[in-house]
């Protein structure tokens, strides 16, 4: 017994442990972080991602880049999850979180090489993250979040992103209008703001519609293309001949029997049309199919009907118009109808779409994003969604802080000033965290064309003397200045989430010293 080896793993299993495991995981995380680093800031570059099928995505959105990349390494996947968490929670700052996580891993690797225990690194990083949150709270600006300030927030989030032929400021105004329309006493309902994309026009044609846009149009050519003061029904049933639930055959032995069957079918369809008309609806959105004969009858009476409406679209119509979704025509009556100022079919590019505007409960709004190509309009959609999320985060989750790297400079300075009070080797990890945060303004400087070291020295000096300093992009280069004076503002929630998610990912990877993979 004593001389026999004991096998607990499959012979084909692979195991990497100790420093080899730590080095492999940290290298994978750093590689993912580096892949998005050049996209950071107003002068960030785009990435072209080509799938196996030849589909092309051109973007500098961190979450999109990482989600489109075919990443298999489990540690690298954690950095992807950092970006996804950032996107889900606050909608922006994905590149910031990913780059910070990668730099925390770089500094963590240096500490491991100096024989600092992983647990000590984790404790130091956690303490530094708390100090970072304190610094962010101190940096929140005491300003009214009026439209002018929110436009600056939205514009800051879109600067450097693909906005076609239109300036970010104009799009920012559309974004703020959309958020204001969706705001209530309980905050902003993000679900009430849709971004509808349509190719065939320049990005400058992007506009806000107070209502809902539906891709489906009338099921019959003779139906009206515009209905004013519309009474709207939303129907969750098929307006067609009902089929039997059992597999049965019917023998028709005479013309009279055939005529009777046809008359019964015609009567059933006629009844559907009459039920819709008796309810008082002059517009009906049906989630199932509508028979041609029902459509024809309703067209004669001037009723607009669209069928095969998606469930989410039906939900949007209900919220915009106050209609009740009914599962049968027996439940359709005047009380179940919603109302809108108008329902209009308009041509957008090569397609016809239906606009429902001025709904009775119209907190729902739609931003129509236009672009000359699919690539342009897709990137514009991402930019608009990020801007919407940042404005909402500013309103609902803690105000705004200076952008352009100023917040990160202040965070690093605060952590360094508090590090001396932390005993033992944990202090090394706290200081390393501060050095890692410097990667963000340093990267902004690099992407703006400045010398990173000189810019960092100038930033620290300006912060020390003025209390605030950021990298401002001007022309083909950048300058050190006050981002608030330039209207460069970020939601505090984006900074808080980036620190938390990056710290969690980095500490989790640093603690791993054994990787066991099955065959």
TrEMBL record:
<dbReference type="InterPro" id="IPR017998">
    <property type="entry name" value="Chaperone_TCP-1"/>
</dbReference>
<dbReference type="InterPro" id="IPR002194">
    <property type="entry name" value="Chaperonin_TCP-1_CS"/>
</dbReference>
<keyword id="KW-0067">ATP-binding</keyword>
<dbReference type="GO" id="GO:0051082">
    <property type="term" value="F:unfolded protein binding"/>
</dbReference>
<dbReference type="InterPro" id="IPR053374">
    <property type="entry name" value="TCP-1_chaperonin"/>
</dbReference>
<keyword id="KW-0143">Chaperone</keyword>
<dbReference type="GO" id="GO:0140662">
    <property type="term" value="F:ATP-dependent protein folding chaperone"/>
</dbReference>
<dbReference type="InterPro" id="IPR002423">
    <property type="entry name" value="Cpn60/GroEL/TCP-1"/>
</dbReference>
<dbReference type="InterPro" id="IPR027413">
    <property type="entry name" value="GROEL-like_equatorial_sf"/>
</dbReference>
<dbReference type="GO" id="GO:0016887">
    <property type="term" value="F:ATP hydrolysis activity"/>
</dbReference>
<keyword id="KW-0547">Nucleotide-binding</keyword>
<dbReference type="GO" id="GO:0005524">
    <property type="term" value="F:ATP binding"/>
</dbReference>
<comment type="similarity">
    <text>Belongs to the TCP-1 chaperonin family.</text>
</comment>
<dbReference type="InterPro" id="IPR027410">
    <property type="entry name" value="TCP-1-like_intermed_sf"/>
</dbReference>
<protein>
    <submittedName>
        <fullName>Thermosome subunit</fullName>
    </submittedName>
</protein>
<dbReference type="InterPro" id="IPR054827">
    <property type="entry name" value="thermosome_alpha"/>
</dbReference>
<dbReference type="InterPro" id="IPR027409">
    <property type="entry name" value="GroEL-like_apical_dom_sf"/>
</dbReference>
<dbReference type="Pfam" id="PF00118">
    <property type="entry name" value="Cpn60_TCP1"/>
</dbReference>
<feature type="region of interest" description="Disordered">
    <location>
        <begin position="9"/>
        <end position="32"/>
    </location>
</feature>
């Amino acid at each position: 017994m004593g001389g026999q080896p004991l096998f607990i793993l499959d012979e084909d299993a692979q195991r990497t442990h100790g420093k080899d495991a730590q080095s492999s995981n940290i290298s994978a995380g750093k590689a993912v972080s580096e892949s998005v680093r050049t996209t950071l800031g107003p002068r960030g570059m785009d990435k072209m991602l080509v799938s196996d099928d030849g589909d092309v995505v051109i973007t500098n959105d961190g979450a999109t880049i990482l989600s489109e990349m075919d990443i298999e390494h489990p540690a690298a996947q954690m950095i992807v999850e950092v970006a996804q968490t950032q996107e889900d929670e606050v909608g922006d700052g994905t590149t910031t979180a990913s780059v910070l996580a990668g730099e925390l891993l770089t500094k963590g690797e240096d500490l491991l090489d100096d024989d600092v225990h992983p647990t000590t690194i984790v404790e130091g990083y956690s303490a530094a993250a708390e100090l970072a949150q304190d610094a962010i709270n101190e940096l929140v600006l005491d300003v009214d979040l009026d439209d002018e300030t929110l436009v600056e927030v939205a514009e800051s989030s879109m600067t450097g992103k693909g906005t076609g032929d239109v300036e970010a400021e104009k799009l920012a105004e559309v974004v703020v209008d959309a958020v204001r329309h969706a705001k209530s006493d309980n905050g902003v309902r993000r679900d009430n703001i849709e971004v509808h994309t349509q190719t065939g026009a320049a990005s400058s044609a992007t506009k806000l519609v107070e209502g809902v846009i539906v891709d489906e149009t009338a099921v019959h050519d003779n139906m009206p293309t515009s209905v004013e003061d519309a009474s709207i029904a939303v129907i969750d049933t098929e307006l067609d001949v009902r089929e039997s639930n059992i597999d049965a055959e019917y023998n028709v032995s005479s013309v009279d029997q055939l005529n009777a069957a046809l008359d019964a079918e015609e009567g059933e369809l006629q009844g559907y049309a009459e039920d819709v008309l008796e309810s008082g609806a002059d517009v009906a959105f049906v989630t199932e199919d509508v028979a041609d004969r029902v459509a024809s009858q309703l067209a004669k009476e001037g009723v607009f009907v669209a069928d095969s409406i998606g469930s989410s679209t039906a939900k949007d119509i209900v919220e915009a118009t106050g209609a009740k979704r009914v599962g049968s025509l027996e439940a359709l009556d005047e009380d179940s109808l919603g109302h809108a100022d108008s329902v209009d079919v308009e041509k957008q590019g090569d397609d016809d779409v239906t606009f429902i505007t001025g709904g009775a409960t119209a907190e729902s709004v739609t931003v129509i994003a236009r672009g000359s190509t699919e690539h342009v309009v897709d990137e514009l959609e991402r930019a608009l969604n990020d801007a919407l999320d940042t404005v909402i985060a500013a309103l609902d989750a803690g105000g705004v802080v200076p952008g352009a790297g100023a917040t990160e400079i202040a965070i690093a300075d605060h952590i360094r000033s508090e590090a001396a009070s932390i005993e033992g080797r944990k202090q090394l990890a706290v200081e390393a965290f501060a050095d890692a945060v410097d990667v963000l303004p340093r990267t902004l400087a690099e992407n703006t064309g400045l010398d990173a070291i000189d810019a960092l020295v100038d930033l620290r000096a300006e912060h020390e003397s003025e209390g605030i300093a950021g990298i401002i992009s001007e022309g083909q280069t950048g300058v050190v200045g006050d981002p608030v004076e330039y209207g460069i503002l970020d939601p505090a929630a984006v900074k808080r989430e980036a620190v938390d998610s990056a710290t969690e990912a980095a500490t989790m990877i640093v603690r791993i010293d054994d990787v066991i993979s099955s065959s």
